[in-house]
Amino acid sequence: MELESTVRALIAKTCLTLDANDYPGYLALCHESFNYRIAAYSPEIRKDMLWLEKSKGDLKDLFNLLPKQNMDRTPLTRHFSIFTVEPAGREDHVKVMSALQVFRTEHQGGTTSLVAIGKYIDEIQLGSNGAVLVDREVRLDTRMLGKGYHIPF
Predict the structure, then answer these.
(1) How much is the pLDDT for 148?
(2) How far apart are CA 107 and CA 112, in angstroms?
(3) Is residue 85 pLDDT above 70, yes or no?
(4) Domains in the chain: boundaries
(5) CB 36, CB 53: distance < 8 Å
(6) Is the backbone of residue 83 left (phi > 0), alpha (psi -120 to 50) or beta?
(7) pLDDT beyond 70 at 22
(8) What are phi and psi of 3, to 5 degrees?
(9) Which residues contact 15 (CB under 8 A, 6 or more apart)?
(10) What gap in Å lies between CA 139 and CA 121, rounded to an integer?
């Protein structure tokens, strides 16, 4: 139970920091060798599509450019539910699969709509200093995201 609680707390923090646009806080939850991907399967071409792939340093650069981007600044809220927690091949690593839903709420609390659904496929390193993300693949079912979303899910 303690393992699942630790994993749940880390994934929740990643969602909360992104929801709050706290990009340094998000990066602090990631290992130095962290790798991030957004992918989706296209039935039309019968292949996986890789939409974004960034190292921790590349994500930092992306986050630093966000204030200069012409983008939709409507707040996003991420919700997750853990499906599985399994050993990841190394003693101090686990692989976690979670359901992901991303919602968009209009400014001043107007309507809320679903932006995307998919899965987080995370590799997490557990250590004496806590847990950190080593790898995250956001595997989206939604393929039509509209314009202006430059923030990782």
Answers:
(1) 55
(2) 10
(3) yes
(4) 2-140
(5) yes
(6) alpha
(7) yes
(8) -60, -50
(9) 78, 79, 80
(10) 7
